[in-house]
Amino acid sequence: MGQAYSCITCFPSSSLSKDPRHLQRQHNIPDLEMNDSGSPTFLPLSPCATPTTTTTATSTPNSVARIPANLLNHTLDQPTQWLQLSPEISYNQNYSPLEMALSRQHRGSGFDVPGAVHSVTTPRLDKEMQTDAKLVIIMVGLPARGKSYIVKKLRRYLNWLQYETKVFNVGNLRRECESEHEQSAKFFDPDNAELKGIRDKLALDVLENLIKWLKDGGRVAIHDATNSTIERRALLLKRLRQEPQIRVLLLESLCTDERILERNFRLKLLGPDYRNRPAAEALADFKSRVANYEKAYQPIGDWEEERDIQYCKLINVGKKVIACNISGYLSGQCVFYLMNFNLAERQIFLTRHGQSTDNVTGHIGGDADLSPSGKKYAEALSKFIKEQRVQFALDLVHEQHEREEIWKSKGLEPLEKTDGARTPEELMKAKAEAVCNSQFIVWTSMLKRAMSTAAYFDPDEYDIKHIRFLNEINASICEGMTYEEISNVYPDEYNMRKQNKLFYRYPGIGGESYMDVIHRTQSMIIELERMSQSCLIITHRVVMRILLGYLTDMSQKEMPHMDVPMHTVFEVRPKPYGNEILKWRYIEHLDKFVQDH
Ligand code: F6P
């Protein structure tokens, strides 16, 4: 038999879900199509869409494993059917390596977490060919829809989870290669076949670079361009079809909020295409470039759905999210992340707990309480945070005022319109008061030294939570020892950790690695991105490095060695162009915080 069938089944007419595509997705059944009589048929496992043969639900392959349908009872209300799988395909029959890889690709869930999941492969199966081994995210959307902002964040998150991720921006290549063409709105005219050809070529060239990078070991590559027509997307998808180990996710950013749009348009005036042109002229040119794209714009929709292409649409930077056909672990992770962020201006403070009695003696781990110096820090911390909240409100008002002055000097209308009843000054004051009085969250670990550091925060004023995920790394058999003792008693362990701190896991019950701590703090990052309030996180050295590693986009090599001294507060202010980081050191004898530059 020359075909590899991954799965053959019948769907009862009384099935709870009448739509076989729904069942197909629920049970990860590949390539199901309906034949003329309405029964599902199955395509052979071929990377290309045109099958030479199809089989109907009544066909049976040579060797099948039978799984009782009661495993599927939640979807089949008459458990009389059998789901038949053929797990032996890869081993027993005469398939080419490509067919075997594809059979795995279609059957696997792609669940892979660096440092926590080990996939068992056969010597005959190329490890790189597992489902979801590589992911290409193709961005779609008109200019100024926040695409670059979204891809930067997504790249940072995936890299933090240790999936090597890179953004390939077509605009940058355009600016490098096409400087001889005037890069004005005319260049983007969809009716000019020659210029359209140049832009398509640029997009394909970037795709080639991206594929090469993935083949050299990268994991997730993001194609950052407008890709705003079906024709363009089909061009990219056709090329990617030749790479069976690569999965594709289309990610569209739409924006209907006029205020966000106008702000994005103006940010473009400060960017590389327009920086040196008079503002009013540049704004008019950019709006006409957008209008050119709008003429030909085809949002993701039926064309993609008919082809079962997985996609996600983000509307107004994540306010509304539509996900379709999402299959594969990595794509699911991306969509979940994208569902959880917002553009609120806020402060995120991070600090280690105040000095503990174990810190004084150099013992790691444990659950000691604060030393006298640690208690002093705790008291000073609550006063400092209060002052910084007021300062932040003033800074926001000041920044907004400065921005308006820039627009004014460029001859543009103010961005923040007055509401008629109040002057701009009154509006700014109201904003400052609102920021000052907004809810503020305090998170600590569940260890004594962290909870005691939050003791001076009034629960009537602050929303305080103690969270186990923020506990320090568990050093298991090394808990309570000094580093010197560890190097004497467990010299091999000591050296192994030195060589690869990120993946090294302390031996013994509950022992953890940095990677383990990344996984347990993943939900903290998602929550941090989801919430719009300011917050203070009081935690420990490893967790600080990991959270700051995410917030400052630090490489995996640097992150486990980052300097996070005691009695130091890091303040993060999320901005449209990235996070701003401020660092404050507590000077005990002066009982005050000073900024570290
Ligand atoms: O010494 C304080 C501490 O938080 C220990 O509890 C923890 O094991 C250690 O720092 C982690 O730092 P590193 O990963 O550099 O050993």
Automatic annotation (TrEMBL):
GO biological process, one term: fructose 2,6-bisphosphate metabolic process
CDD domains noted in UniProt: HP_PGM_like (cd07067)
Domain of life: Eukaryota
Cross-referenced Gene3D superfamilies: P-loop containing nucleotide triphosphate hydrolases, Phosphoglycerate mutase-like
Binding site for substrate: R352, H353, G354, Q355, S356, T357, D358, N359
GO cellular component: cytosol
Protein name: 6-phosphofructo-2-kinase-domain-containing protein
